[in-house]
Amino acid sequence: MSVVSWRKTVVSCRLSVVGCRKVGGIFPLSRVFGVYTVVIVLIVLIVVVVKTLTTITTKTLNMKSYKDLQVYQIAFQLAKEVHLLTMKLPKYELFELGSQVRRSAQSVRTNIVEGYGRRRYKQDFVKFLVYAYASLLETISHLEMIKDLYEITETATLTDKYEKLGAKLNNFINYVTTQWLL
């Protein structure tokens, strides 16, 4: 097949899809219409790809610090609430269970920060987010123990907040694993 006949076949096939083929030849304007159609489709595809990439990268680039992460902000607030709650424990428990729950609550927050510091290495970032999730579960366990032993009513609401944070952290781990670009 020569180049000229190949071009005619391609143009007539492309135009027949559009519906501009005529028995015995091709309308001169239909060639132009076919070329414009292809150019318009390519331009639309390029615009869609550029918008998608811009949206993904701006989400990542807008984060100038770990403080911009919603999971960090929530973990920080909850760590403060846990600290204040543990001050209501009996004196002999301040340095036992109180200290343990304070450290695990702080660990959630600090593992998010350390993971963010290693965000250029996706696997390290995910690893520290998993550590943060494990510390979160440890914190929930300590809060449940405090609730059972001392019947402090605030522990139930804190446990609920930590469970919601756990869901957000799990979603963030999935996001970093599948879509994180940096």
Give a written overview of the molecule.
By secondary structure, the chain is mainly α. The protein has 2 domains: 3-58; 66-179, de novo design (two linked rop proteins). The chain is 81% helix and 2% strand. It contains 7 helices and 2 strands. The protein has helices at 3-18, 28-61, 70-86, 91-94, 97-117, 122-150, 154-179, and strands at 21-22, 25-26. The protein has a two-stranded antiparallel sheet with strand order 1-2. Strand 1 (21-22) and strand 2 (25-26) form a beta hairpin. The longest helix is centred in the N-terminal third of the chain and has 34 residues, at 28-61. 22% of the residues are buried. Mean pLDDT is 82; it is low at 13-20 and 22-27.
Domain count, please report it.
2
Anisotropy-based shape: elongated
Proper CATH architecture of the largest domain: Up-down Bundle
Which series of helices and strands comes N to C?
HEEHHHHHH
| Spatial strand arrangement across the major sheet | 1-2
How large, in whole angstroms, is the Cα Rg? 30 Å
What is the highest CATH level, the class of the largest domain? Mainly Alpha
Q: What structural class do helix, strand and pairing data support? A: mainly alpha
Which blocks of ≥5 consecutive residues have pLDDT under 50?
13-20, 22-27
Quote the beta fraction: under 5%
How far from one another are the termini? 48 Å
Strand count: 2
| Mean pLDDT score | 82
Helical amount among residues, as a percent range? over 70%
CATH superfamily of the largest domain: 23S rRNA-intervening sequence
Largest sheet: 2 strands, antiparallel
Number of helical regions? 7
CATH topology call of the largest domain: de novo design (two linked rop proteins)
